[in-house]
């Protein structure tokens, strides 16, 4: 059975650099996932949840 591993895109890293890092470790990208990042802001006494970014994660399968 093939081994899988998740690779999270690091700060100040491009997608190409992340994919290159995966290849160096012997993994082939099989799936890309994006997860939103939220933060709470209090405005006029109400809590508002606003998106403030996203996290990109690649899933890789070992060759």
Summed up:
With 63 residues, the protein is α+β, with helices and mostly antiparallel strands. Helix content is 16%, strand content 62%.
Q: Helical amount among residues, as a percent range?
A: 10-25%
- What is the β-strand count? 3
Shape: elongated
Q: Unreliable runs, pLDDT <50, ≥5 residues?
A: none
Cα-atom radius of gyration: 16 Å
**Helix-strand sequence:** EHEE
| Class of secondary structure makeup | alpha+beta
Question: Termini separation (Å)?
Answer: 11 Å
Number of helices: 1
Count of spatially separate domains: 1
Main β-sheet: number of strands, strand sense, barrel status?
A: 3 strands, antiparallel
Strand content: over 45%
Strand order of the largest sheet: 1-3-2
Mean pLDDT: 93
Structural write-up:
This protein is α+β, with helices and mostly antiparallel strands. The protein has one domain (4-62). It contains 1 helix and 3 strands; from the N terminus they run βαββ. The protein has one helix spanning 15-24, and strands spanning 4-8, 27-43, 46-62. The protein has a 3-stranded antiparallel β-sheet, with helices on one face. The mean pLDDT is 93.
């Amino acid at each position: 059975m093939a081994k899988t591993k998740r690779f999270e895109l690091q700060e100040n890293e491009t997608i190409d650099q992340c994919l290159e890092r995966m290849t160096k470790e012997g993994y082939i990208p099989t799936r890309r996932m994006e997860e939103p990042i939220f933060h709470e802001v209090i405005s006029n006494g109400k809590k508002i949840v606003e998106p403030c970014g996203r996290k990109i994660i690649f899933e890789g399968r070992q060759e």
